[in-house]
Amino acid sequence: MPRRRDPLSEFNIWPAFTDALSGLVMVLVFLITVFVITEVLIGREMMGKDSAIGQLQRIVDHLEGLAGDAEKEAVRLRGRVQGLESTAGERDRLMAQLRDELAAARAAQATLNADKTKAEETVTSVQEQAALLSARADRLALELARLNQALAANQQDLTQKDAVIVAQKDKIDALDSALKKKLQERVQELEKYASEFFGRLREVFAGNPDIKVVGDRFVFQSEVLFPPGDAALSASGSGDLDKFAMVYQQLAARLPPDLPVIIEVQGHTDRTPIRNSRFPSNWELSTARAQQVVNYLIQQGVAPQRLAAVGMGEYHPIDAADTPEAYRRNRRIELKITSR
Fold it and tell me: Which residue, 145, 205, 268, 333, has fewest beta-carbon neighbours within 10 Å?
């Protein structure tokens, strides 16, 4: 059986000791090296101390110069800071103003947006209306073209009719001139007849102051023909009308049949009212007297178509005075030569 070995008897301490000793030697060498280096450095430091102090003095001088410059710069910067502070105040004021303007601009923008919306709605409506108007314009253009065609046809027709109208106008002018000439001749004939007729009557009734020619009228005072307030012819009045009819018949024989001569018999009263069963007013009395004269002249052979009876009442006096003589003058029968 083999013999076990004791671990302690087999342990060798020398290698470990050698290693420790080697480490200690190395530490000592390191320390000595550091000491030598330190000495060298201290020596060098002592040698360059004077030069370092001069250098430091120069640095201090330079730093003092820099400090002066820094103080000046600080003063300048303080002034600038104050300027910046005032500028900052102005900036704050401007910022506030800008904020107000921005708020106003935003409000204006909101208003513009609302107006834009309304404008867009209006534009849409206008566009719709424009479309309707365009369609209507197209229809009107078609209608206008149709009307132009019709107008052109009508214009041609009118041109032809104008030519006819011009020709007819020339004829009408010629007829008008001839008619005027003929009318003038008739007027002259009528004036000649009236002048001759009244001239003969003036001769026949020259001795009677109540029967006379006044202008273009032959006047009988009512008392010559009628009793007061009555329309029945008196005997003397009938005799005077016989003379009138005789003069007319003498001239009528030479009167052209186509000359439109009318003897208008007008009855006039005064302002004295009359009220009875036969004559309720002067209108009825004046008309009845004029009609009585016309009837009598027809009986004496005067053509009815040459006579006209007109009652004038009291509304056309020849004397406006309120006297018996004026009343007598206003009560009259007038015979006037006129035409149709």
Answer: 145
Structural domain including 251 reads: 205-339
Domain assignment present for residue 9? The answer is no
Cα separation, 290 vs 228, whole angstroms: 15
Please give the Cα distance from 302 to 218 (Å, whole number): 16
Please check whether residue 176 lies inside any domain of the structure.
no
Distance in Å from the first CA to the final CA of the chain: 198
- In the numeric block, which tokens belong to residue 17? 């000791």
Q: How many domains does the chain have?
A: 1
For residue 317, the tally of other CB atoms under 10 A from its CB is 18
CATH number at 225 reads 3.30.1330.60
> What whole-number percentage of the chain has pLDDT above 90?
31
Please say if the pLDDT value at position 179 is more than 80. Answer: no
Confidence (pLDDT) at 2: 53
Q: Which of 269, 260, 162 is nearest to 225 (CA)?
A: 269
- The per-residue pLDDT for range 47-56, each reduced to its tens digit, is 766 676 777 6
What is the predicted pLDDT for the residue at 283? 97
- The predicted pLDDT at position 8 comes to 47
Closest CA relative to residue 265, chosen from 211, 215, 336, 340: 336
Q: What tokens does 95 get?
A: 């910022």
Give the phi and the psi of residue 277 in degrees, each rounded to 5: -65, -30
- DSSP letters for 189-239: HHHHHHHHHHHHHHHHTTT-TTEEEETTEEEEEHHHHS-TT--SPPHHHHH
Does residue 85 form part of some domain?
Answer: no
- Nearest CA among 227, 225, 182, 203 for reference residue 335: 225
pLDDT tens string 252-294:
877 777 777 899 999 999 999 998 899 999 999 999 999 999 9
